[in-house]
Amino acid sequence: MMTCPIGVNVAHAARLLREGKLVSFATETVYGLGANALDVNAVARVFAVKNRPHFDPLIVHIAERSWLPRLVASWPETAERLAAKFWPGPLTLVLPKTTLVPDLVTSGLPSVAVRMPSHPLALELLRLADVPVAAPSANLFGQLSPTRAEHVADRLGDQIDYLLDGGPCAVGVESTVLLLESDGTVRLLRPGGIAMEEIEAVIGPLCQPSHTTAANNQAAPSPGLLPQHYAPRTPLVVVEDIAKLTSPERCGLLTLQPHPAAHRFVAAEVLSVSGNLTEAAANFFAALRRLDAARVERIIAEPLPNRGLGVALNDRLTRASHD
Ligand code: TXA
Ligand code: MG
User: Fold this and answer.
1) In what order do the strands lie in the sheet with 298-301?
2) Which helix (H) or strand (E) is 48 found in, with range?
3) CATH superfamily of 236-320
4) Which ligand is nearest to the CA of 147?
5) How many Å lie between the centroid of ligand 1 and the Cα of residue 222?
6) Domain residue spans in the chain?
7) Model pTM above 0.90
8) Which of 22, 29, 315, 323 has its CA 20 to 30 A from that of 299?
9) What is the arithmetic mean of pLDDT over 268-290?
């Protein structure tokens, strides 16, 4: 397969973005597939390359706060507190949009999702491009998110113009997405790289996601909430009690820590030997990819503790599970 140039030439990548080209770039969460958010043709190519349905809106990435007044129509005090604490970093805020933001970016929603990533290469790219960059995760729609440059090159290498290699993603799971409603309510749309406990320590209790689906191709409040997403090709099931499984011979195993029954599986992946959930998140998608490549009949995953980044990982596991 033909693949695009891969490297660390940020100035070149920034120029390509300004010219309406597609650049995949490292962020601290996962690799993004970026296009100038103000260039509708470039954004349309992002949807086409990903095979992403048009009802699923994109996150707009910025490096400078000075873009905010041009992108969002209101900036409540809660947004200020969250941004002051967590930007740059894996937190996305959904706020009313301005008319500058193309409807294609937001799937026709009156709101736009904005985030300031913390990966130094991403920040430099955004600064040099000097345009807001719409970027979904750089994977085909519904598949596993890429956390290494080679994950992107393998699947999308022939369809993008440059791949900015920032090494393995340190956080490893997508940003936390929060909807800031006009009455001051903050709603969690997607658990992610900033744990709920951390957010609640700053702004108090969050509202849980409303379980709206994208039925009839209508824009959902957050289509990342589609029940099936982030999935390996191999069927995956979440199993509470691994030791009780009767015939794991043809299965792969995903656990947080080393499991005493692991030797009975064809392949086993441990997310963090010490049980650290932050380390587990950083290893999560790459481990799932290895299990997917191990030609097992089924991937058995143990649920993770439901705290810290474990909440986001359990969310991804639930959406990855299918028979
Ligand atoms: O960490 C991340 O967020 C990565 C990196 C590349 O920044 N990006 C990412 O993008 O995960 P994507 O497209 O895979 O997921 C974006 C999520 C989706 O769940 C989408 O529905 C939600 O953000 N979203 C985007 N705009 C929205 C809006 N206006 N209202 C509600 N949800 C929105
Ligand atoms: Mg994605």
Assistant:
1) 236-238, 298-301, 251-255, 267-270
2) helix 40-50
3) Threonylcarbamoyl-AMP synthase, C-terminal domain (3.40.50.11030)
4) 1
5) 8
6) 6-203, 236-320
7) yes
8) 29
9) 98
Average pLDDT, the chain: 93
Nearest CA to ligand 1 atom 6: 32
**Secondary structure of residue 243 in the 3-state scheme:** helix
Q: Look at ligand 1, atom 19, and give the residue with the nearest C-alpha.
A: 224
Tell me how far the alpha carbon of residue 73 lies from the centroid of ligand 2, in angstroms.
25
- Summarised one tens digit per residue, pLDDT across range 118-149 is 999 999 999 999 999 999 999 999 999 999 99
Structure-block tokens of residue 156: 């999308």
Q: Which atom of ligand 1 is nearest to the CA of 90?
A: 1
Q: How far apart are CA 266 and CA 306, in angstroms?
A: 27
Mean pLDDT of 230-237: 89
Angle subtended by helix axes 10-18 and 120-129, to nearest 10: 40
Question: Does the CB atom of residue 135 touch ligand 1 within 6 A?
Answer: yes
Residue 217 binned pLDDT confidence (cut-offs 50, 70, 90): very low
Q: Is 171 in the pocket of ligand 1 (CB under 6 A)?
A: no
Q: Ligand 1 test: best mutation among 59, 86, 133, most atoms within 8 Å of CB?
A: 59
Superfamily of domain 6-203: DHBP synthase (3.90.870.10)
Quick one: pLDDT at residue 287? 98
